[in-house]
Structure formats: structure tokens, C-alpha cells
């Protein structure tokens, strides 16, 4: 599970409408940077940008790691 549904693993809980997003990557543990980027790819609305910024700050994502993703 990715997108906003995955933010709960980092103590950020949001109201979700509809089905959570999925990214199929067998055997791969997604990093917070990957989750933030996937959320932005799914939707670049201001709410998603705000949520991605919250995760970036909360999980202390390195700027270079985020840029590399």
C-alpha cells in the first residue's frame, strides 16, 4: 500500500476517500521518500503537496534522497 494510506505507518493519519493507492514492488520496503513521491505522482493538488511535506518533515527525509527519488 502506498499513497496517503501508507502515511499512517509514520503516525500521520488522514481521512481517505476511495480505495488506497498501490505500487507493486515485490520484496521492496518503500522508504518515506518513495511514499511521498508516489503521493505526488498520484495527485499534485495542494492537499497532497501539504501531506507530502508533512511526511517529509515528520520522517526527517533527507533532501538529496527525496530529490533522487
Secondary structure blueprint with pairings:
Layout: H1 32-42, H2 46-58, H3 63-68
Helix pairs in contact: 1-2
Keywords:
69 residues, mainly alpha, 3 helices, 43% helix
Radius of gyration: 11 Å
Strand content: under 5%
Structural class: mainly alpha
Helix content: 40-55%
Structure notes:
The protein is mostly helical and 69 residues long. It has one domain. 43% of the residues lie in helices and 0% in strands. It contains 3 helices and no strands. The two termini are 18 Å apart.
Summed up, what is this model?
The chain is an all-alpha fold. Helices cover 43% and strands 0% of the residues. The mean pLDDT is 80.
Amino acid at each position: 500500500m502506498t499513497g496517503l494510506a501508507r502515511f499512517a505507518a509514520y503516525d500521520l493519519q488522514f481521512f481517505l476517500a476511495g480505495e488506497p493507492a498501490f505500487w507493486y514492488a515485490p520484496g521492496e520496503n518503500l522508504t518515506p521518500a518513495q511514499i511521498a513521491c508516489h503521493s505526488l505522482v498520484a495527485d499534485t493538488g495542494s492537499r497532497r503537496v501539504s501531506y507530502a511535506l508533512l511526511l517529509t518533515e515528520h520522517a526527517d527525509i533527507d533532501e538529496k534522497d527525496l530529490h533522487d527519488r
